[in-house]
Specification:
The protein has 284 residues and is mainly beta. 12% of the residues lie in helices and 51% in strands. The strands form 2 sheets. The chain has a 12-stranded antiparallel beta barrel with strand order 1-2-3-5-6-9-10-11-12-13-14-15. Strands 7-8 form a two-stranded antiparallel sheet. Helix 1 packs across helix 2. The longest helix has 15 residues, at 3-17.
């Protein structure tokens, strides 16, 4: 059995067993020559109220202009799970990302890679056993677009393109998509297949002004190397987002909802996220 059938079902099955614990994310603009950004997202489940403050997926990232049409982007993911039935605080450093973004008119092309994290996320239980799971599960189920950031023993290569249609200000739409190749680098917990191909696709109807961006988002991820029909091989979510520029700061928030008739929709109420970008050096 392959990645989606093994990891997703096992992870979500663990969430079901952990019901007492609890009841891409909008792409950043990367303003200025240099900037840093902090993102946080928390899932809200339908059953239970046991998740504690701090549970969620986090990303610390930055960019540096390499010229008028290229940016270097670095990102470090981190996930935390704190709840009534979690043995202590589960946390994990995810798979770091490094990539190059090419700006071609109103299109952006991202080429990047994630390396395997050195953090094993092992927790000692009362029975003396180790358990790897809570923070990993929170990270994977919170960030559909970047779920591979929290897969264990996995490195990945990603290519993506975003195309803005419509005027620079006013109503428009952005289309995005691209492949991600996942490569298992450690003991394979998911079967004989050592690689998985995911396809990301979606669109953002958006309204823009000189300082404000607000709109809706549809996101899908398709597991091209998993057996089954389209519904069994894909996951989708919809959401709303807004951000605005205030001097050298660009804060924003988003709200996301799973829409597939699967475990995500059955158990997730919504995912709430926020981010803030800080321009270290404005445009020349």
């Amino acid at each position: 059995m392959q990645l989606q059938n093994h990891f997703i079902l096992i992870s979500l099955g663990l969430i079901a067993a952990a019901a007492p614990i609890s009841a891409q994310t909008v792409t950043l603009i990367r303003p200025g020559r240099y900037s840093i950004a902090f993102e946080a997202a928390r899932p809200y489940f339908k059953d239970g109220e046991g998740l504690k403050l701090g549970t969620g997926a986090y990303f610390l990232s930055g960019h540096a202009d390499l010229g008028s049409r290229a940016k270097l982007i670095l990102e470090l993911p981190y996930a935390v799970a704190r709840g009534d039935d979690v043995p202590g605080t589960s946390n994990i450093i995810g798979n770091p990302y490094a990539g190059l973004q090419l700006v071609l008119g109103r299109s952006r092309i991202d080429l990047g890679a994630r390396i395997r994290s050195w953090d094993s996320n092992l927790i000692e239980t009362d029975e003396g056993q180790t358990f790897n799971g809570w923070a990993t599960i929170i990270g994977v189920t919170t960030e559909l677009e970047r779920s591979e950031a929290f897969f264990r023993n996995v490195a990945s290569l990603t290519a993506a393109i975003r195309v803005d249609a419509g005027p620079p200000t006013g109503a428009g739409v952005t289309f995005f998509g691209g492949p991600s190749l996942l490569m298992f680098t450690g003991d394979d917990e998911f079967g004989d297949n050592r690689k998985e191909l995911l396809l990301t696709y979606g669109l953002e109807p958006v309204y823009r002004t000189a300082s404000l961006r607000a709109g809706a988002r549809f996101l899908g991820r398709y597991y091209a190397t998993v057996d089954g029909d389209f519904g069994e091989r894909s996951l989708h979510e919809v959401g709303l987002f807004a951000d605005f520029a205030a001097a050298r700061l660009r804060p924003g928030l988003h709200l996301r909802f799973p829409i597939d008739e699967d475990y995500f929709r059955q158990n997730h109420r919504f995912i709430l996220g926020l981010h803030i970008q800080v321009v270290l050096s404005p445009e020349r």
